[in-house]
Write a structure and sequence with these properties.
The protein has eight helices and 19 strands. By secondary structure, it is of the alpha+beta class.
């Protein structure tokens, strides 16, 4: 039986690469099974990797800020009772093992130990690693060190006097802000989605007068029971109904077939300020009442904004809603489908508008609470007829609320 235990990147990250945020233990430290050993950041969540066994951390193979893949070896533990390596901590063998690992993690001049983002930044600015004093673990150069060095260099250049004939007007120095792991992954996903799927968008508008009337009647009751009745709750509910009737929109495009999903798992785009965007998933929404949808949505959004989402919370989505209207946008077409889904709904801000409405004996002018809805589809999987039929039903459900949504009421 081997006395050395490898610490691996979790294999259940759906093929997603991750970045090492922080090592919770140093080489030579004792660890207990299931104790947090290292923190990883994916494009979706931050996860702790626990120690797979009790023992001593004898080798760190990946430094902080390094990018890693599922099943990649992060570190090695020496297990208790090791007859070959169980030597006293001060012995030459133990010292050599530990110092070798520390030297590997701390040699900031070795470009192999720099994170990909730091290597790119050094290359872009023609800077040698040895020109920068690192502030990371054991003197390793971090992205913040490079940014600071570039800013200081630019500042010095800006204030250095030039010959009288060559003086230029003073300018503010540029600032280089390194991308977070989430921002890099979002960018990669968007580019891949556009490359893989031909995107087409259809536009409708919906009269939310009846939805707003229902919300005014029930919002306080929901609040007293611990759930906010937001407009997004109604959009989720209307999409659930439409997806059950049009299962081809609740699907995944495969090269040889369309996979129609039995469960309706709706992802809701949630902005994290300057940090990026994340999409928590309301699983099995077809089984939930309107109040239960409101509960789940509130829990998911709060977990997203406090960094408490688990990998399971962002997996398995079959359809996505982007309510860009909460930021004041009237109209936008989400052009990047959340692969491998085949459609995404965009929701604009509710606006009071003058409209022509049906009335007894003809038509009349009225003021209504309107919003634009867009559906962007993967044209490999869906055609305009299917997209319009789906979005027509979503609009009808919202405009005739609550008659067409009785099954989702309390």
């Amino acid at each position: 039986m081997s006395s050395i235990k490898d610490v691996l990147v979790p294999a259940n990250e759906e093929g997603t690469r991750a970045t090492i945020l922080k090592w919770c233990k140093a080489v030579g430290d004792s660890v207990i099974k299931d104790e947090p050993l290292v923190e990883l950041e994916t494009d979706k969540v931050t996860v702790e990797v626990p120690a797979p066994a009790s023992g001593t951390l004898i080798e760190v193979l990946k430094p902080e800020s390094a990018e890693v893949s599922p099943d990649e070896v992060l570190a090695r533990l020496r297990l208790p009772g090791d007859s070959t390596l169980a030597v006293e901590s001060g012995s030459p063998i133990a010292a050599t093992s530990i110092e070798t690992a520390r030297a590997a993690a701390g040699n900031r001049a070795d470009s192999d130990l720099l994170s990909p983002s730091v290597r790119r930044m050094l290359h872009d600015h023609d800077i040698a690693p040895g020109d920068i004093s690192g502030t990371g673990r054991n003197g390793r150069v971090t992205a913040q060190d490079v940014t600071r060095h570039v800013s200081q260099t630019a500042h010095v250049a800006a204030i250095t006097p030039l010959p009288a004939a060559a003086k230029a007007p003073p300018t503010d120095a540029n600032t280089l802000v390194p991308h977070t792991a989430m921002r890099r992954r979002v960018a990669e996903h968007m580019v891949r989605s556009l490359a893989e799927a031909p995107h087409v968008t259809t536009l409708f508008e919906a009269d939310l007068s009846r939805v707003l009337k229902h919300r005014a009647l029930h919002a306080k009751n929901y609040e007293s029971r611990g759930a906010r009745l937001t407009l997004t709750v109604y959009f989720i509910s209307a999409c659930v109904r439409a997806l059950r009737i049009h299962p081809e929109v609740n699907a995944t495009f495969r090269q040889d077939a369309m996979e129609l999903h039995g469960d309706v798992n709706i992802g809701v785009g949630t902005a994290l300020g300057d940090k990026g965007l994340i999409v928590p998933v309301i699983h099995r929404a077809q089984q939930l009442s309107l109040f239960e949808i409101a509960q789940r949505l509130q829990q998911a959004v709060e977990a997203a904004r406090t960094g408490k989402l688990t990998p399971q919370d962002v997996r398995g989505g079959t359809f996505t809603i982007s309510n860009h209207g909460v930021g004041g946008s009237l109209l936008a077409a989400p052009i990047v489908i959340n692969q491998p889904q085949v459609a995404i709904l965009g929701v604009g801000r509710v606006q009071r508008r003058v409209c022509v409405v049906d009335a007894e004996g003809g038509e009349s002018i009225a003021v209504r609470s309107m919003c634009y809805l867009t559906l962007t589809i993967d044209h490999r999987a869906l055609d305009a007829f299917q997209a319009n039929a789906f979005l027509s039903l979503v609009v009808k459900t919202l405009e005739q609320w609550p008659d067409t949504a009785e099954a989702l009421q309390d």
